[in-house]
Design goal:
The protein has 136 residues and is mainly alpha-helical. The protein contains 5 helices and 2 strands.
């Protein structure tokens, strides 16, 4: 294996292997400085949204920054994160008063900051699970 050759990472699905093989075929047959075709970029972006930027870029032998820009462009075009959902959490009167701030950042770029005052950790767990699942 050459140093810059993309490598398959254990645990990735067959979809990643298919895109990796398509990229390898394109790289073998491309002419000069021909850019990567848009359909291959689109497939890589979809995988990065599912598997994460760094693992996808490494497995496909793509430039991380270029892949990140494309993922961000697609995310913005789809309106992900533009319609926040607000959830009111009510503490039971007998619960001890607690206060904390939690900041979450999803691999796709979504961010959430929660300032809790008088809310139990069970409520926090449900809210963070909803965040990781993404928009409905």
């Amino acid at each position: 294996m050459r140093l810059n050759e993309p490598c398959a990472t254990p645990g990735f699905d067959a979809g990643l292997e298919t895109v990796r093989q398509r990229l390898e075929d394109w790289r073998r047959t491309r002419k000069g400085g021909e850019p990567i075709p848009e359909e291959l970029w689109a497939a890589a972006v979809e995988l990065a949204q599912q598997q994460g930027l760094n693992p996808t870029a490494r497995a496909l032998g793509l430039n991380y920054a270029a892949l990140k820009r494309r993922v961000e462009a697609v995310t913005a075009a789809e309106g992900v994160g533009l319609k926040p959902t607000f959830v009111e959490l009510l503490a039971s009167p007998s619960a001890p008063v607690t206060e904390c701030t939690v900041e979450l950042e999803h691999e796709g770029g979504a961010r959430m900051r929660i300032h809790l005052h008088g809310v139990g950790t069970v409520d926090l767990a449900g809210l963070t699970r909803a965040f990781w699942r993404g928009p409905a």
